[in-house]
Amino acid sequence: MLKPKKLMKNDKVAIVSLSSGIAGDKKFNHKHVIGKKRLEEIFGVEVIVMPNSLSGSEILYNNPKLRAKDLMDAFQNKDIKAIFCNIGGDDTIRLLSYIDMDIIKNNPKIFMGYSDTTVNHFMLQKCGLVSYYGPSIMAEFAENVSMHDYTINAVENVLFNNTEDYTIASSANWTSESLSWEEKSNNKKKRCLKPEKNGIEILQSNGNITGELIGGCIDTFHMFIGSEIWPRDNWDKKILILETSEDIPSPDFIIQLFRNPLMTDALKKVKGIIFGKPYDEVYYQDYKDVIINFFSKEIKRKDIFIAYNYNFGHTAPMCVLPFGIKVEISSETGFMKFLESATEEN
């Protein structure tokens, strides 16, 4: 996998809206403004807001080509060193026919986002480029009152530094509290943090595992399984990461997705599975039950490494996971150690 160069102070970072266009809507734009300012002030980079990213929900819904154009233009711009997403959504898959894979392959740079941006990550995997499952501008960068230290440290460590031997551990606290973004006054109200009682749970293990990360938000997989960006090989080298969104998919949805023949084939081959903390811990035990039942009874993989309750995805704070680099996961703690740096030196 091709790694982009690490970020440095004063580098140019582009902001794109590849799915939802709410960053340009009057009632939500204040979250974009806060996130952009934090990115500039905390991390010392120069932010470039791509031309169509603030066009608003209606225009971007009706024009996926404009969203894709921003992404392609950002990759082609030699001055831009990284691309961060404003927010997720539910229709990034509509960009696929407008993506020029050669442009991405020939212009490697940091790309970060999560949720529906999972689709974009699989596009970059198809291109052989390492990408980063991590914070979005309007959610984590614009976190009420201030960013979480855990998230700040993750961005700094993974994107700005050499990360060989870097270890991801569990956060001491978390939140899924929902405060309306339409109420600007909520920006001054800190979301309630809960202490982490469970930490990372090892559901199955035959020892430490090593492999390359791939995956994302499980809610999106049904839209691109079997498409041109769905990997056809090398699953035996992969550790699959999966997390659920604020839509809180049912345990039945999880098991039905697992039973998709192409998904089942991947699950029969992967080295391990790691799951993010369920949104607001809804279905916390139910998810574990269906996961263990599927692997132990349906595909007879009692050998596979399965760990649960990581801090990535839709609960805050969140780490940054580089897709395509080799990592090792401890069978005792569940901690993840990078066996190579997530970026290249400048």
What report would you give on this structure?
By secondary structure, the chain is an alpha/beta fold. The protein folds into two domains: 12-147, Rossmann fold; 168-338, LD-carboxypeptidase A C-terminal domain-like (Glucose Oxidase, domain 1). The chain is 28% helix and 20% strand. It has helices at residues 29-43, 57-62, 64-76, 101-106, 118-126, 137-141, 149-160, 251-258, 261-269, 284-298; strands at residues 12-16, 46-49, 80-85, 110-113, 131-133, 167-168, 173-174, 194-195, 201-204, 209-217, 238-243, 272-276, 305-310, 321-323, 326-329, 336-338. The strands form three sheets. Strands 6-16-15-10-11-12-13-9 form an eight-stranded mixed β-sheet, with helices on one face. A six-stranded mixed β-sheet has the order 2-1-3-4-5-14, sandwiched between helices. Strand 1, helix 1 and strand 2 form a beta-alpha-beta unit. Helix 8 runs parallel beside helix 10. The longest helix is centred in the N-terminal third of the chain and has 15 residues, at 29-43. It starts with 11 loop residues before the first strand and ends in an 8-residue tail after the last strand. The mean pLDDT is 97.
